[in-house]
Design a protein that fits this description.
heterodimer; A: mainly alpha; MetI-like fold; two-stranded antiparallel sheet; 2 strands; 3% strand; B: 442 residues; alpha/beta; D-Maltodextrin-Binding Protein, domain 2; 2 domains; five-stranded mixed beta sheet; disordered N terminus
Chain lengths: 304, 442
Amino acid sequence: MAITAGPRAWRRTAALQGASFTVPFFLGFVLFSVVPVVLALRESLFTQRSSGLGFGPKTIEFAGLDNFLRGLADAKFWAGMGRVGLFAAISIPLIQVVSVVMALLLDAASRRVAARFRLPLLIPYMIPGIVATLIWIYLYSPDVGPLTPFLALLGIDADFYSGELIWVSIGNLMAWGAIGFNMLIVYADLQSVPREIFESARVDGASELRVAWSIKVPMIRRSLVLTTVLSIIGTLQIFSDPMLFRSMTPETVTRDFTPIMAIYDWAFAQGDFNYAAALSIILALVVGAASAVFYRLTNKAPTS
Amino acid sequence: MNRTHVSALAASLTLVTALTGCGAQEPAGPAATASGPVTVTWWSWDESKFLDPVVAKFNATHDRIKLKVVKQADNPGTAANLRNVVAAGQDVPCLVKSFGEVPGLVGEGLLADITDAFRPYTTQGLYNEASYAGAKAGDRFFGIPAGFSPSFMMINRAVYDKHGVAVPKTWDDVIAAGEKLKKHGVYVMNLAGEDPSTLVNLVQQAGGSWYAIEGDSWKVDFLSPASLKAADVVQRLVDGDLVANQTYQDRPALISYFDSGKMVSLPTQTWQLGNYELNFKKSLGDWQPIDLPQFADAPAFVTPAHGGALLVPKGCPHIEEAVAAGVWMTTSKDAIDASYQQDTKQYSWPGAVPDPSPWIDSAVPEKLFGERRGEAKDVILKATKAGRDPWVVGPNYTGVFSELQDQWAKIVTKEITVRQALEHLQKFTVDDLKSKNVNVRG
C-alpha cells in the first residue's frame, strides 16, 4: 500500500478500519432489529376489513392510529401490564437486595472462598431460560413434583399453580436465574473500588456494616442502576416463563396474562398482525419510558 | 406451549388423518400436472406411526397423485406455519389437519373454496349426512369432511358400586351422583381449565348454536334457551364442587389421575380408549361404557356430532388432486384399514362414512371394560345413529374460542358464573364482528 496521504487521511483510514469491525454487528442489528421495527410500524398503521358474512376476501385499509387507540383502550392488555408492573415493583427490589448482600458477603470473604462460591452462584444463569422453567415446572407440579409432598409433610398445603401463588412461583424462578448474574456484576464493580478507602474507614473506626452501607453501596451505584434497568426491561417483557406455566395451569395463566403474551396471542393465535404490531410498539414505549424514568431518578447525583 | 386442547372436536379431527397436500416444490398450473404425478403435501402433527402407513398405502395405489407428509410439531405450530405460507403464497400445502373450525379459518382467509371439486363426491354415498356441516362455511365447502366420533360415557363402575351410586342416565343423575360421591372424596367428572368442550358439547346436545346465518347477516346468541340449559349443568357441577380440574397438558399425570378411582365418569370417544387401555393399571376392567347422559326433558336420545374437516388451504395449486386424496383418506376402506395400529389394535375412527360398524369391534379395547366389553358395541352404534350437528360458527370463531377458553378458566375457578361468561362472550363476539365490518345482529 502506497503511503501518500497525510496524517489526517491516515487517521481517517485507521478509524474506518476500526469501525469496520462493527460491520457484522451492525448488519445483524439493522436486519434483525431496525428492519422489523420499521415493518412493525408500517403494519401497525393498517387494518384488515371484511364484509358481508366475513367469508369473502379481505381488504387491507389504512387505519391511521386506530390500532393504537384501540390498544390504549384495551383493558386486558393494560391489566396484563399492571400485573407485570406490580410484579416488577416487588420482585426487582427483592432480587437486587439479595444480589447486593451476596456480593458484599463475597467481597468480605477471602478471595479463595469467594472464588469457590462465584461459579456455583452463576450456574442458574447459565441454564437456558426455557430449560430452567421446565425444571421448575416439574418441581412445582402438585401431581408429580417433590415440593408439594415435602411441604405437606410440614403441614403446609401449597399449590404453586394457584392464582395466589403463581407470581411467587414465577418470581422464585426469575430470582433463581437473575441473582447470580446481578451479583457478579455488582461484585466485579466492588472489586474495582480501591481497597485503601475501606482501610482508612476502618482506621477511623467504622464497622464492617458501616463500611458496606456507607462506602461500598454508594460506590457500586452505577452497576446497581445498570442491573436494575436490565431487570426492568426483562421483567416487563416477561414471556417464556408464564407461557410455559400456562401449559400447566391455563386456568390461572390466561392467554393475555402478560403484555407480550397478549401480543403473541393476537399475532399467532388470532392472526391479527396489525393490532399485534401496534401493541408491540406501545409496549416498547412503556418499557423505554419506565427505564428512562428510573435512570433519571437514580442517576442524578454524581457518582464515582 | 402446546395449547392443543383436547376438545371433542379436535379429537374427531385427529382421527381423521387427513392427507394430501399440494405439491410444495412444484410450480402451480396445468403444465406441472401434465408432466408427471402431482405431489400433494399433507401437514399433520399426528405421530408418524399414524401417518406413514396411510401415505404408503395411498402411494402404492395411486399413479397420478403422490402424497407427501410434512410432519408438524403441534396444533399451534401448524396454525402459525400455515398462516405464514398462505401469507407468503409459497410452498402452500394442499391438505392440513384442522386446528380450528372451518368458518373461523375461512374468516381468516386461510382456506380455498373447494366446492366445485368436492361436490361430485357428495352424490356417491361416500359420506354420512352429519359430516358435511363441519367442512362448510355458509353453503360452500372449504375442507373435506372428516366426520365425527360418536360420543358416549365411560364410568368407573367399581367405584360407583362401592358407594352404591346408580348409573346416570341424565345430567341431573350425574349431578346427583356427584353429590353422593363427593362425600367419599370422589369427583364425578373432570373439567380441565383449558378445555371448554364440555360446555360446547352440552350446547350442541341441547340443539343449540351460538351463531346462525340469517340472510346476509350473522345472528349471535350465547343466551339462547339451549345455551342456558347447558350452562345450568356446568354451573351446578362447579358450584357443588363435584368436579376435578386436571389439565390435559400433563398427560401422564392426567391418565394416572383417571386411573386412581378419584374421578369416575368420562365423556369419551372411541379414539381415547386405546390410550386408557395401554396406560390404566389399577382400574383396568372396572370401567363400563354407557350412553351419554341426556337432558331430562330431551324429546329424543341425541349425541353431539359436530364434524371436523381436512383443510385445503388457499394457494394450494392442485385442488382437484387434493380433494381426490382427501376423499380417499376420509372414506376409502384402504385408508381406514391402513390406519390400524399394532400397539392399541385400533383403526382411526372412520367418522365420515355412512356405516362405521365394520370397525367398531376393533375400536373397543380388550381389557378396559372387563366383562362389560360386549356392551360397548351397542353403545357406540347408538351414539353414532343419534349424532346431530346443529353447530354453526362464524368467521371470528378462532378468536372467540380463545376468549371462551379464558372465560372457561374463570368458570372452573369460580371467578365468574357460566351465565356471566356467556354474557361477556355475546358482547365480545358481536363487538368483534362489528369491528371487522361483518354484518351481525344480536
